[in-house]
Amino acid sequence: MSISEKSLPCSPSSSSSSLSSMSVQEFDPLLKDLNEKKQSFRRNVVSLASELKEARNRLASQEQSFVKETLTRQEAQMKAKNLEEEIGRLQKRLEHRNEKLRLQHLPLKRSHSHPSS
Asked: What transmembrane ranges does the database entry give (predicted)?
């Protein structure tokens, strides 16, 4: 290059010509390395996206299981409460019948214990 060419601002055509004068072999390893890193980055992004999707699916499944478990527990608690109430009603009916039978047998006991003459 002459001195006058060096003093001129570098235009795209002149910079490409100066780049073309550099050996392609000098850039090739750098471009190859950059391309490999880019491909590796893309694979990592795809892998991370896949892992994220799987994690979201597991979370959704766990949430569904939790909801199902909660509903099952609530149903079991409701059934237990209803059974307790039914047992209470049956116990009161039994006590009432026992008292009724006791009162019915009381006159019979008196008549057997006091023979009439």
From this structure: none
Structure tokens belonging to residue 100: 């009724």
Reading the block at residue 84, the tokens are 């307790």
Q: How many other CB atoms are there within 10 angstroms of residue 14's CB atom?
A: 13
The total number of structural domains that make up the chain:
1
- pLDDT confidence bin for 94, thresholds 50/70/90: very high
| Angle CA 73–75–80, to nearest 5 | 95
Model pTM score: 0.50
- What span, in angstroms and rounded, lies between the C-alpha atoms of 78 and 84? 10
Asked if the structure places residue 67 within a domain, the reply is yes
In a domain, 2, yes or no: no
Rounded CA gap, 77 and 81, in Å?
6
